[in-house]
Amino acid sequence: MAHGALSVANLLSVITAQTITGLFGASLNNMDNLSLCLKDVKEAGAYRLNCRLDELYAAVAGAGYVLFEIDLAEIEGKETFIAAIAQVVHAPDWFGSNWDALADTLSDFSWQPAFGYVLLLRNDNGTLGMTAEDHNIVMEIFVETIAFWKSQDKPFWVFFC
User: Fold this and answer.
1) Of 72, 17, 67, nearest in space to 45 by CA
2) At what angle do helices 78-88 and 132-151 cross, to 10 degrees?
3) b/e 10-32 (16+ beta carbons within 10 angstroms → b)
4) What's the rounded Cα separation, in Å, for the pair 32 and 8?
5) Beta strands in 10-138 (DSSP E)
6) Cβ–Cβ contacts within 10 Å for residue 62, how many?
7) Across the strands, what pairs with 122?
8) Per mean pLDDT, which range of 15-29, 30-44, 73-87, 143-157 is the poorest?
9) pLDDT single digits (tens) 75-124
């Protein structure tokens, strides 16, 4: 599917239809339970974070996953967003600094093998620091990335906070 082919409504319904409360609600104070929830490939997706960061950090470590954390406070557009992700995932030399390269990189962590992956986007203002069009493209890339990793039986989570 070409980037930009999904409508904003479709992308938002994919993300808002999933709620983190059931997975990471107050009933799951135990880090072992949180780690187990992260391992559920079927539930992997894009969520608004509803637990403390230290709880997420501990759960990610307990699950044996790689955490990629980006502070969006300084992001001002597509270029800085892509550069921030490239830096945090330690993108290889072939990284092209465009949407296709971002999609390819998020679907190939051969240089960073793990049981699963978590992308934590902190200080999200709802736009990820980008125009509406670029925001829609990156959300589509996230949806495609999550689907790809599910097809590999490996969870890929995106958390916004």
Assistant:
1) 17
2) 30
3) ebeebbeebebeebbeeebeebe
4) 36
5) 46-48, 66-71, 117-122
6) 16
7) 71
8) 15-29
9) 999 999 999 999 999 998 888 889 999 999 999 999 999 999 999 999 98
